[in-house]
Amino acid sequence: MSSTILRFTAESTTNGVRERDFTVGGVPGVLWSPAVGPERAPLVLMGHGGGNHKKHPAMTGRARRLVLGCGYHVAVLDAPGHGDRPRSEHDEAEIAVMQEAMAAGKPVGPIVVRYNDHLAELSLPEWQSTLDALQRLPEIGADGPVGYWGINMGTAIGIPFVAVEPRITAAVFGQHWPDTLADKARRITIPVEYDLQWDDEHISREAGLALFDAFASKEKTLHANAGRHKELPRFEADSAVRFFARHFGRANAGAA
Amino acid sequence: MSSTILRFTAESTTNGVRERDFTVGGVPGVLWSPAVGPERAPLVLMGHGGGNHKKHPAMTGRARRLVLGCGYHVAVLDAPGHGDRPRSEHDEAEIAVMQEAMAAGKPVGPIVVRYNDHLAELSLPEWQSTLDALQRLPEIGADGPVGYWGINMGTAIGIPFVAVEPRITAAVFGQHWPDTLADKARRITIPVEYDLQWDDEHISREAGLALFDAFASKEKTLHANAGRHKELPRFEADSAVRFFARHFGRANAGAA
Q: SUPFAM superfamilies from the entry (chains A, B) (predicted)?
């Protein structure tokens, strides 16, 4: 484990969920925990989507389900160039190219794949230091179950991370291209739930299915829903919570 | 509605579930209901798999989840040539051809497709009469939600039935070939959950995905799990129960 230290910078409790902002090596993150809960509980790390940040409603909503429904701890980092982190010149240039392609109605896939691959490379050591630091908290501990949940850019960052991180033993991914990720997915053998949109206007069915196919996991489940890229149904969040509950147990049954 | 009459032939109650055997026009079926429950509740019709029957453990287990978890009524018929029903010469001949193909390691798909299509044709009017008769029971009624749940042969019989039966408003299908079914699936617009096995040794991925693709439903979800034909995970039964609970409401929350 690295010696990078976790510093709490803010704390509040709302409707049964304790929210603590932190930094690890300068990277800002948030840790959600049960306000009143068991001494130790599993941890789920979540990766946010491209263009948003650690406290996006998709993150806070999922965190509440995991905290209140299962009694887990949940942590999210701002990805490089996202949320409270400054954008580099490289970020600005890639975002400009992406916006130009969108405005021109051109495919954004190749740009997203390339940019997310770069962010994943920067993120990997950050996530490892953060996990080291979180596991030093007594309410998490070094030997408890750890999951990962990230769709879109959360998958682009998560697959390379999970591929090299043996502490993570169950993961929910989805909605990305296989180009730079399939080789890494082939090294992943833990249970995986994978979401894709059957009518995704950016990611072809062939591409989406190829990334699901690449996981070496004996237990893997594809959830493909009718609809376009941004129409991933809300019930898939509940399904992901049940997936973790099935694998990690449910400290606090009933509420999810 | 037809005038075919439902006759109850046996009744018992075990662990909160009331089980009533019945016949409609000579076809034997079973109706599971809450032992103590609301005056009216939704009905789920279930189709069993090839070679088994109305009280196969897969049927009784799913029925218990729907009755105890949701407070629903659940009905299953013995398919033609199955369970308590005599086999015709045609049944015997098709089963012999199927067993020969299996013993010789030849593909059984074309035989299963042809035989199940024949059974579906016989079953369709039986299911319609049964639904007419069940809806005359005061605890079901003519205007309540009706679902259909059948995998394998239950899908071969269910898709043609649901395609022409407007009373059914949500369905779970899975694990069949598209040959005779895709055209009928194209007429189905209700919410569908569809199970397939990613490593099915009988049904190719291409064939399985083609049948899912054929449904015209705006809401449809594919659940594809790693594993062979008979390895459909148990958690897909829980998922199907939640699918019906999401669409029909949950009279009796908590137990599923």
A: alpha/beta-Hydrolases
Q: Domain for residue B255, yes or no?
A: no
Alpha-carbon distance of B221 to B191, in angstroms, equals 8
Instruction: DSSP letter for A110, please.
Output: H
What is the rounded CA–CA span in Å between residue A101 and residue A107? 7
Residues of chain A where predicted confidence (pLDDT) is lower than 50: 1, 253-256
Tell whether the model's pLDDT for residue B253 goes beyond 60. Answer: no
Q: Please report whether residue B254 resides in a domain.
A: no
Cβ-Cβ contacts under 8 Å, B226 against chain A: 217-221
**A93 CB neighbour count, 10 Å cutoff:** 12
What is the phi/psi pair of residue A32, to 5°? -105, 135
- Chain A positions touching B231 (Cβ under 8 A) are none
From the list B213, B225, B246, which residue is nearest A221 (CB)? Answer: B225
Find the domain containing B137 and state its range: 6-248
Q: Does residue A253 lie within any of the structural domains?
A: no
CATH number of the domain that residue A61 is part of? 3.40.50.1820
Q: What is the tens place of the pLDDT at every residue in B134-170?
A: 999 999 999 999 999 999 999 999 999 999 999 999 9
ipTM of this model? 0.91
Residue range A16-59, pLDDT digits in tens: 999 999 999 999 999 999 998 777 999 999 999 999 999 999 99
* Torsion angle defined by CA atoms of residues A42, A47, A48 and A51, in that order, rounded to the nearest 10 degrees: 160
Please state, in angstroms and rounded to a whole number, the distance separating the CA atoms of residues B56 and B58. Answer: 5
